[in-house]
Design a protein that fits this description.
This protein has 3 helices and 10 strands. With 175 residues, the chain is of the alpha+beta class. The longest helix has 13 residues. It starts with a strand and ends with a helix.
């Protein structure tokens, strides 16, 4: 018998309260089962910050073959409590979710004895209470990359904008 098998298991919401979700889809073909992962473009994600950087989060696994160049996908591993503990290039067991980023993470400082690379999360995964598609996230990220960095205006240029002397400019909020 061929078809899809859906397993329900406990996963955790952004507040780490248990909730039942469809966590794993398994395709059964010719009596063999294999885990299915999602196309990066077919999902709505939770908008998060990981290590202070914007990212997308999903409870599901993302098919790495659908990830475009310049996008980085990492898996989260949970411990006995169910909370994500580490971020790794790939997690086979104790998968707690997947994050998508536009900047690579540096795994060079931490490595397990077997050579696997990981980073401890330690409360540096923040759920922001918003959802995004992958396309929306990429548009926002591109807009942020193309916007000029804010810079301090020298006093001689600031005088052109406010028309006041320096003492008066300071009282009006100019630094």
């Amino acid at each position: 018998m061929n078809g899809l098998i859906i397993f329900q298991t406990f996963a955790y919401s952004h507040s780490f309260e248990p909730m039942i979700v469809v966590l794993c889809l398994v395709e059964k073909t010719n009596g063999r089962m294999k885990k299915m992962s999602l196309n990066i473009y077919d999902e709505h994600y939770e908008f998060v910050e990981l290590f202070g950087k914007p990212a997308l989060f999903s409870n599901a696994r993302i098919d790495r073959e659908t990830v475009p160049d310049g996008v980085y996908v990492y898996d989260l591993r949970h411990g006995d409590s169910g909370r994500p503990l580490t971020v790794e290039p790939f997690v086979g067991v104790n998968h707690a979710g997947t994050v998508i980023m536009t900047e690579p993470l540096d795994f060079s400082k931490q490595e397990k004895k077997n050579g696997d690379k990981y980073l401890n999360i330690r409360n540096r995964l923040n759920f922001l209470g918003e959802c995004r598609t992958f396309e929306e996230f990429m548009e926002e990220t591109a807009a942020q990359l193309n916007s000029p960095e804010p810079r301090a205006i020298p006093d001689e240029e600031a005088a052109l904008f406010d028309g006041h002397d320096e003492a008066q400019g300071m009282t009006m909020g100019r630094m």
